[in-house]
Design a protein that fits this description.
- The radius of gyration is 38 Å and the shape is rod-shaped.
- It is an alpha+beta fold.
- A hairpin with a 4-residue loop joins strand 5 and strand 6.
- It has 18 helices and 10 strands.
- Helix 10 runs antiparallel to helix 11, helix 10 crosses helix 16 and helix 16 packs across helix 17.
- The protein folds into 3 domains: about 110 residues, Beta-Lactamase, CATH 3.30.450; about 130 residues, Beta-Lactamase (2-Layer Sandwich), CATH 3.30.450.40; about 170 residues, Hypothetical protein af1432 (Orthogonal Bundle).
- Bound molecules: fe (ii) ion (FE2).
- Fe (ii) ion binds next to loops.
Length: about 475
Amino acid sequence: MDNVLQKVSRRKIEEALESLSAGFGAALLVLDSGGKVLMGAATDCRDRAAFISSARRSGKEVYSEPLNFKERRIGTLEVCLGPGTGNGVAPGIARSLESFLGLEREIEDLSSEVIRIYEELSLIQKISGRLGNEMDVERICRLMLEEADKILSVRTLFVMLLDADRDELYTRFAIGSDGELMLGFRVPKTEGLIGHVFLQGEPVTVCDIAADGRFQLPYPAKSVLCIPLIADTKPVGMLIATDKLSGEEFWSQELQLMGIFAAEVSSALQKANLYEEINTLFLSTVEALATAIDAKDPYTYGHSRRVAELSVAIGNQLGMPKDRVRKLELASLLHDIGKIGTPESILRKPGMLKPDEYEKIKEHPAKGAEILLMITELREIVTWIRHHHEWYDGKGYPDSIAAEDIPLEARILAVADSYDAMTSDRPYRKGMPSDTVLKIMEQFASSQFDPAILNVFERCLQQGIVV
Ligand SMILES: [Fe+2]
């Protein structure tokens, strides 16, 4: 009975035997292909010899019928009937039992298929829900590995993405006991097993990496599962798992599930990559704009970029989220955009400014905010730029707001902007050394600058995060 017994429940087979036994008035005994008694009906015998001798004692005969399933012998049915009646009836009972087993097996297979489809759909729904509109490649990779680990439960899992410039696959994210060793791992996109899976777009499992010889890893691993990440028919990377914690091989169902999973994640990765490209393009446009602003005054060349670097360092030190730091960088690059409207004769004036000229300069934060208000993507940073010349004690411009009323990002900008202005050469003076500038700025802590931000900035300088 072997396979059929494993798949069809014993209780169901016993019920079928009971009804056949009652219907035909026969005692029945089922033996497996090795002759071992598995179950019976209308008999207490659990031994073939006892079944036969008990039948003979009651003047009956035992008919032996082979049981087949899909043309394979799976066991024997012993049928105990009155003399002369068994020749036609016993084969009929055996065929009925075979049909019943076939039907039940089909039902079991269908149930497993339904469960499998249900699991796949749940997985897709779960991943789609968690991915949402996620646009950060790092977070997508982390989520992919966490979910994949729940399905596979392996020693190490990593994501390799395509580096199109170098025609290589590189580890973008890794988890597990050997995860750290995988960071920095690179392979040509056409080489070995990874290259094969990447180019063929078909998942592969290898039970014995050493014997296979096509896969070199920076750590010892026995088995591997490689799933290509394909977006819009183009391969974009690979999900790789090594060694199940249970020590088992990777199953084909797991391979199938991971394939569905990888398809979901691939499209999210593609969206995120596109978003990253647009962002890079946007940032380079902003950089070009910042260079144009700085070019109005040759003495401030590179000022916006330097302020951006200082602000980003402060933002990171404060633990600001990545998105916010990115916006702070944009704001820093554009903080003086309002100077577009300031006459160059004032900006380039080598000596001290007259009061009316200084008033003209003071217009640039409000003008900058006005210009940026027109760009929807930059709306959030408008107030940061408007207030980057406010003082912590409320004596700045344009709105004379104070302390926490000044947006945090504007307070960061104020520190970074002043530090770079004082350390850079100006038409009327040389740039001052960092120590001197810090001493001056400390005198203005709580009046011009937020003392907490100034503190964080000094820490960035001490730690060499900025120079
Ligand atoms: Fe400014």
